[in-house]
Amino acid sequence: MRQSQLFAKTKKTAPKEAEIISHQLLLRADFIEQSSSGVYRFLPLGFKVLKKIEEIIREEMLAVGAQELYLPALQNKNLWLETNRWQTIDPPLFKFKDRHQKETALGSTHEEEITDIVRRRVKSYQDLPFSLFQIQDKFRNEMRATGGLLRTREFLMKDLYSFYADEKDLLNFYQKVKKSYFKIFKRCGLKAICVQASSGTIGGELSEEFMVFSSGGEDKILICKKCGYGANIEKAGEIKICPKCQSQLEKKNSIEVGHVFDLGTKYSQAMGATFIDKNGKSHPIVMGCYGIGLPRLMATIVEVHHDEKGIIWPKEVAPFNVHLIPLSFTRPGRVEEISEKLYRDLLKSEIEVLYDDRDKTAGEKFAEADLIGIPVRIVISERTLKKNFVEIKQREKKEVKLIKSGQIKKYVK
User: Fold this and answer.
1) How far from 242 is each of 141, 229, 234, 237, CA to CA, in Å?
2) For the chain, which has fewer Cβ within 10 Å, the N-terminal or C-terminal residue?
3) pLDDT of residue 200
4) Class (C level, CATH) for 7-307
5) Is the dihedral of CA 28, 30, 36, 40 positive or negative?
6) How many other C-beta atoms are found inside a 10 Å radius of the C-beta of residue 147?
7) Class of CATH domain 320-412
8) pLDDT tens digits, residue range 190-212?
9) Contact 155, 108 (CB under 8 A)
10) Using the 8-state DSSP alphabet, how is residue 244 labeled?
11) What is the mean pLDDT, run by run of 10 residues, along the chain of 413 residues?
12) Which pLDDT score, from 0 to 100, does residue 8 have?
């Protein structure tokens, strides 16, 4: 895309209320914009990153055999009354009445909806197992929205639900999903750890969170370096000694990037989601639930991958693969000719490129390029073209390489 046509206006400073680095940089680089407290607009650059994250998650969910669906944001009150969560879920639901004075709510989670779908279709053990997922907006009536995209009132979330006849088989799938989560976070450039967690108002037999160490994180976890034990302080309390090996625990700030639950039969029992086994006996379906908040994951990537100049996007989630920057562009000549040709060649090779065709100084172009954080920068200037070279620099590194112009596509790939 030509940068002269990109709908983005970068800023030199972030608003005072933006306290953590991901919030500051995403606002300054014009990836996002606040609409109201805890509600954000995703502008073209931000939306591209969000869709890249979404596709990574979708690929890994399909790889574990899950099927995708899409559930309504408007919630059926009667379903929530069946599970007794209409009044008890925390944070509370966004509730309102329609023009017929019928009370409804915006979905913060979808256990009731998915259980209702399943109980209408599953009759026998032969109908099991299966897993269903969606990527959809969620609405959380938070008391306090903080940290930019880390704690919002409206956000895009992937939630996966699994349905099994017995606990043993469910736990096997649960472990399979955990492995897929590690793949997702690795592809997003993050090193996550899995720790014990509180089930909260979701409930269930077992709950674990995926955490990424970050000074900007509001979650505090306890880690044992000796045996690998880890737990959220919410779950473990203020203990100092590891319950597994009695070693000293270390407290760390972190960001939760994923949460998995063994729900057991909590929802199936409450809502009558049962199946008939081989012997003709009825049992409640055993369920699991697995969530990832996409905007929070996006913010966590920035918390981990940045420097004093701006964002450093990992390759798989970057809005573009290459930032093409010609210098001395105001005078038509060889720089313009080579730049235009290279831009077309990169597009033909299906390499996503942002082409800075604007009439700006080199300093302005480089500062914006560092802020936006595209992984590879190609600079074309009269000085390097005299020797038939172009400059290539990886955003995460300081050194600049000179390569032959004919080798660019090979290098980028």
Assistant:
1) 35, 7, 15, 12
2) C
3) 84
4) alpha beta
5) negative
6) 19
7) alpha beta
8) 999 999 999 888 988 799 999 99
9) no
10) T
11) 98 93 98 96 98 98 98 97 96 96 97 98 98 97 92 97 97 98 98 94 89 92 94 92 95 96 97 98 98 98 98 98 85 84 93 95 96 97 89 94 84 77
12) 98
Phi, psi (deg, nearest 5) at residue 288: -130, 155
- Residue-wise burial string across 104-133, b where 16 or more C-beta atoms lie within 10 A, e elsewhere: bbbbbbbbbbbbbbbbeebeebeebbebbb
String of DSSP letters for 271-340: HT-EEE-TTS-EEEPEEEEEEEEHHHHHHHHHHHSEETTEE---GGG-S-SEEEEESSTTS-SHHHHHHH
The token duo for 254 is 């972190």
**For residue 305, how far is the Cα from the chain centroid?**
14
Distance CA 74, CA 54 (A): 22
Please report, as a single letter, which amino acid is at residue 92: P
Cross-sheet strand order for the sheet of 401-404 = 353-355, 322-326, 376-380, 389-394, 401-404
DSSP state of 407: G
Q: For residue 331, what pLDDT is reported?
A: 58
Q: Tokens 């290279």 identify what position?
A: 342
DSSP 166-202: SHHHHHHHHHHHHHHHHHHHHHTT---EEEE---TTT
What is residue 332's predicted lDDT score, i.e. its pLDDT?
Answer: 63
Three-state secondary-structure class, residue 379 = strand
Structure tokens at 391: 């400059």
Length of the chain: 413
3-class secondary structure, 217: coil
Helix residue spans in 111-265 (DSSP H): 111-119, 167-187, 233-236
Structural domain spans, the chain: 7-307, 320-412
Biggest alpha carbon–alpha carbon distance for the chain: 83
